[in-house]
Amino acid sequence: MTTATRAYVSRLAGMPVFDPNGDRVGKVRDVVVALRVDSAPPRVLGLVVEVAARRRIFVPMGRVTAVDPGAVVLASGTLNLKRFEQRAGETLVLGELLDRSVRIAESDRPAQVVDAAIEQTRTGDWVLSRLAVQEPGRLGRRGQLHQLNWDEVVGLTLPQSGQGAETLIATYRELNAADVAHALQDLPLKRRHEVAEALDDERLADVLGELPETEQITILGMLEESRAADVLEEMDPDDAADLLAELSNVDRNRLLELMEPDEAEPVRQLLQYSEDTAGGMMTSEPVILTPDATIAEALARVRQPELTPALATQVYVCRPPSATPTGRYLGLAHIQRLLREPPSTLVSGVLDDMEPLRPETPLGEVTRYFATYNLVAAPVVDAQGRLVGAVSVDDVLDHLLPEDWRERSRRG
């Protein structure tokens, strides 16, 4: 196996890290460098490595014995598991250098940093030696790409505002929303704002749902009010209601007014319930069918990619109207039963008529209900016999865990 003496940081991101025995330790999440006041290349201090329970730790570069194609190898399996905290004078290459606006020294043309290479010197130290920068494109085309030495680029040692985030977001593309949320919390506040601004509404909505409430409020407060309303529309109604419940009445009502009426209405309904009841935990958008729907139609509905696995395990049959609150609730059908029946069979012929939850059912009873019937989702029906939503097991767990469980998980 060939050991590399130069590696591009975008390729290092997500690369597995192994100890000398070949046991996997974690994966690379970023590279920490120390910028210098002159034109000398920044010294590489170490790697940010994500280990078990999404804990991010610092591994000094002196502990790295090899950067092989597809893997980083350490000199020892003994690690300091203290959570990584960025210090003054330290810069994260992925988190802070990518997307920075610079100028090419020779031509004085503007460009943007899209990648950076670290290189091992003859003394064994590692430095950030080269940059890949791209000039602005014209008419929708990409500009010219340059591979330059560190001292051939101007503008990285000065404080900068208005930094983009496209390249950094590209490194997040394959991560799920929970992992992006963890990465976002490890960025400086200014950079966090830039990334949140650059994410599209749907992606940002998914990421917000995985953040602690205090972080959700901070990021939402950074956005223009109209953009914040758009993001809330993309969130699941129960997540949007939980977030809005933490805001002042004035801010909550203003954002609800900015949302589209048909998107705001289910959120308003959920805000009526106490958060520790079935009504406060439920989503108002489960899979709802009318009695004349066939099993083929039901299976097509549960294949929709936006459904969570829990909500896709069953469908609810109700008299029209089919939007919550519906007409009279008739029962539910489990996907296992649907898969065993002919596709042309009516869903109303395979219903389970178990007693549904009420909106006012407290958390303790909801938990016992799920445990008794071995469920991953359950219907919530009001006193008039109308389906108003469904509680999924992930919502129950979210309320059973301590309020700061996401932050505790990040800290390990």
What does this structure look like?
GO terms for molecular function: magnesium ion transmembrane transporter activity. This is Mg/Co/Ni transporter MgtE (Contains CBS domain). Keywords: CBS domain. With 412 residues, the protein is α+β, with helices and mostly antiparallel strands. Among the domains are: 166-272, MgtE N-terminal domain-like (MgtE N-terminal fold, Alpha Horseshoe), CATH 1.25.60.10; 288-399, CBS-domain, CATH 3.10.580. The chain has 17 helices and 18 strands. Strands 2, 3, 4, 5, 6, 7 and 8 form a seven-stranded mixed beta sheet that branches. Strand 9 and strand 10 (110-120) form a beta hairpin. Helix 6 packs across helix 8, helix 9 (237-245) packs across helix 11 (261-271) and helix 15 packs across helix 16 (393-400). The longest helix has 11 residues, at 261-271. The chain is elongated and about 75 Å long. The chain starts with 5 loop residues before the first strand and ends with a helix.
Please outline what is shown here:
The protein has 17 helices and 18 strands. With about 400 residues, it is of the alpha+beta class. Among the domains are: about 165-270, MgtE N-terminal fold (Alpha Horseshoe), CATH 1.25.60; about 290-400, CBS-domain, CATH 3.10.580.10.
Write the layout of secondary structure elements.
Layout: E1 6-8, H1 9-12, E2 16-18, E3 24-34, E4 43-50, E5 56-60, E6 64-68, E7 71-74, E8 90-92, H2 93-97, E9 101-104, E10 110-120, E11 126-134, E12 145-149, E13 153-154, H3 166-171, H4 177-185, H5 189-198, H6 201-208, H7 213-222, H8 225-234, H9 237-245, H10 249-258, H11 261-271, H12 278-281, E14 288-289, H13 295-302, E15 314-318, E16 329-334, H14 335-340, H15 363-373, E17 377-381, E18 387-392, H16 393-400, H17 405-411
Parallel strand pairs: 2-7, 14-15
Antiparallel strand pairs: 1-10, 2-3, 3-4, 3-8, 4-5, 6-7, 9-10, 9-13, 10-11, 11-12, 15-16, 17-18
Helix pairs in contact: 4-6, 6-8, 9-11, 15-16
Pfam family, one: SH3_actinomycetes
InterPro entries: CBS_dom, CBS_dom_sf, Mg_transptr_MgtE_intracell_dom, MgtE_N_sf, MgtE_transporter, PRC-brl_dom, PRC_barrel-like_sf, SH3_actinomycetes
GO cellular component, one term: membrane
